[in-house]
Design a protein that fits this description.
mainly alpha; Rossmann fold; 3-stranded parallel β-sheet; 45% helix; globular
Length: 203
């Protein structure tokens, strides 16, 4: 943002957690007094600079840590005939690819919905369901969708469309904070892989 817009806005006090990448840039640049037309015109340049820097920072992935049970849960779900595994994230697609590159998990996500698709996280489930429908020819009503996340905004995203909300306290929000959002399922982590999969796939 400093390179492209000449400002960062109130970045030290901004709460990034659970927000889409475009939402973050728009909020911070508006707070810095940057005109909407300038933000719109330069947003692509901003994300191009971001992806290039992220690629350098991530590198070969020595600093990337997969949280307990996460990879195993994704693999277990990807191996089921009754599930389509998607990546729904506030990251722009290019950023998500780089972050997941060292984990080997990218290929397991059959569809994706990204911050680069919608600035409003609540709209991403519809994007994911449309892509799953195009892939499989099947309908995906929201009540059959399960959204896993580690922030209150992930729970809100699920609630907004009527999906099942699964929260895991491995991020920057603690167990009690996530419990206050009343998700359908709440995990300390996903280390109990079989138990996790059984709970989130039970109807």
């Amino acid at each position: 943002m400093q390179t492209v817009f000449g400002a960062t806005g109130p970045i030290d006090s901004y709460d990034f957690r659970g927000r889409t990448d475009p939402r973050i840039v728009w909020d911070l640049m508006r707070a810095a007094g940057v005109a909407d037309a300038v933000i719109e015109a330069r947003l692509g340049d901003c994300f191009a600079a971001y992806v290039a820097e992220l690629d350098t920072v991530i590198g070969e992935g020595a600093g990337v840590r997969v949280l307990p049970g996460a990879a195993e849960v994704v693999r277990a779900l990807a191996g089921r005939q009754d599930a389509v595994v998607g990546l729904l994230t506030g990251n722009i697609e290019g950023g998500a690819r780089i972050k997941l590159r060292p984990t080997g998990l990218w290929a397991l996500f059959q569809v994706g919905a990204f911050g680069s698709d919608e600035i409003d996280r609540r709209r991403l489930p519809a994007v994911a369901c449309a892509r799953a429908r195009a892939l499989t020819g099947r309908e995906f009503p929201f009540e059959d969708v399960v959204i896993l996340g580690d922030t209150p905004l992930d729970v809100d995203c699920a609630r907004a469309c009527g999906a099942v909300a699964v929260a895991v306290a491995t991020g920057q929000h603690g167990h009690d904070e996530l419990a206050a959002c009343k998700p359908d399922h709440l995990f300390v982590d996903f280390s109990d892989v079989a138990g996790t999969v059984a709970r989130i796939t039970r109807r």
